[in-house]
Amino acid sequence: MTDKTHLDEEALAELQDVMEDEFDVLIQTYLADSRTRLDSLRQTLEAADADAFAKSAHSFKGSCVNIGAPYLGVLCMEAEQLGKAGNLAAAPAIVDAIESEFAEVSARLAVFGGAS
């Protein structure tokens, strides 16, 4: 396990200040986009396409870091590295971890957004 947190509340607060009324739209867009990225990770894993898996994980990592979900970003980085190494044997477990962490992040974003 890492010492990274589920949500970087300071980063989210800054985003909220910058985005103002559009903050909720940003969060909803991130959540919808992330679900699509999770589907892509699963599909590329099923297809045993290590390169596409790495690219999907890389783009998911970027959006996680941008929204302030550091631990989810770390998990995506680990998935990306597996894909780049062409080693998908450990990938199902990391995708499960990503899915679990995304559920946690989603729940916390709902609370964070509700507090605004």
UniProtKB/TrEMBL annotation:
Residue span(s) of domain HPt: 19-112
Keywords of this entry: Kinase, Phosphoprotein, Transferase, Two-component regulatory system
Signal peptide, first to last residue: none
Modified residues (Phosphohistidine): 58
Source organism superkingdom: Bacteria
Gene Ontology terms: biological process: phosphorelay signal transduction system
Entries under Pfam families matching the protein: Hpt
A single GO molecular function term of this UniProt record: protein kinase activity
Transmembrane segments: none
Name by which UniProt lists this protein: Histidine kinase
Organism (species): Marinobacter halophilus
Lineage: Bacteria, Pseudomonadati, Pseudomonadota, Gammaproteobacteria, Pseudomonadales
